[in-house]
Amino acid sequence: MDSKPIMTANTNIPAFVSAHREEWEALDRALVAFHRQRGPKSVDELEKLHELYLRVTQHLSFCQTYFPQIPTTVYLNELAVRAHNTLYRDQVTSRQQLKTFFGRTFIHLLVERVNFIALAALLMVLGGIAGFFSVLIEPLNLHTLLPQGISGSIDPASLGQYDYTINSAQFSADIMTNNIRVAFLAFAGGATLGLLTVYILIFNGLLIGAIAAVYWQYGNFYDFWAYIVPHGMIELTAIFIAGGAGLLMGYKIIVPGLYPRIYQLKKQTLQSVQLLLGTLPLFVIAGLIEGFITPSTLSLEAKYAVAVVTVLGLAGYVYYGKRTFVKALVEK
Predict the structure, then answer these.
(1) Collapsing DSSP states into helix, strand and coil, what is residue 9?
(2) 16, 7 in Cβ contact below 8 A?
(3) Has this prediction a pTM greater than 0.90?
(4) Rg of the chain (C-alpha set)
(5) Tens-digit pLDDT profile for residues 92-128
(6) CA proximity to 154, closest of 210, 226, 230
(7) How far is the C-alpha of 140 from the C-alpha of 146, rounded, in Å?
(8) Contact yes or no for 247/258 (Cβ under 8 A)
(9) How far apart are CA 251 and CA 57, in angstroms?
(10) d(CA 306, CA 304)
(11) Which residue from 279, 260, 115, 265 is spatially nearest to 192, judged by alpha carbons?
């Protein structure tokens, strides 16, 4: 759906209303039709309603910032509330809504941010390379790069020598909680102009690289990655997504373009929260793998096979979602 850019703070109110009235009226008509037929006729109709809602929330955010007292702001607020209740309260238990979000909306957000997600991955990889060679050249650097609690607990000789059946459920829950915390910090770091996001990505890369170097020196490199990649492929993908959202938020604050910085912050925060919510299933899957499969007595080859399956699953999901997204653009 084509959309007109929101005007700057210097725009007069009549011009603003004239530029966006059609979109507001389109959302109003869509809401009336939605309730008249007691739901959407198709996924495309629900997606169109969602896009109109996002546009109106952008206009509302702009008006609340620069024209908080005018009747138009009140009208947009009421319209946005109606749309929100229709999409997120009336349909909260709808399987169709979940299908739309994970099948199209989430992929839409990923496609829009693919460059920043790739940048997040690159930052972590660079941190990993730096950590690996730093410890490889000077093993004592391990204690400089890693917190004492982590560096002191690394024992390559004991890799895999524990009973995975003990507290596996609690271990899995702890892992999920920690990974979600890291992703949230990477996303929220965008509010610091992206500096905190960059630090978190590089620091976590340093941790992985430094630990990998220790296992390389002990000749357990192949074994080490067998315990990392089964859950790591999904886990790192989710962190890259959250990190990409944080980097984009920081970039838009620094380079807001035609929009005011506060508007960009509100807009990117809203869409980044959607991205973060979309990664939650990935963290759940990664946590279950890390809690039950990674430390199990399965052979190393079987664990690598699990990693391959997770990669193929992620690739298939993105491929299918991207095709659906492109098809929707063509239809519009």
Answers:
(1) coil
(2) yes
(3) no
(4) 23
(5) 445 666 777 777 778 888 888 889 999 999 999 999 9
(6) 210
(7) 11
(8) no
(9) 21
(10) 5
(11) 265
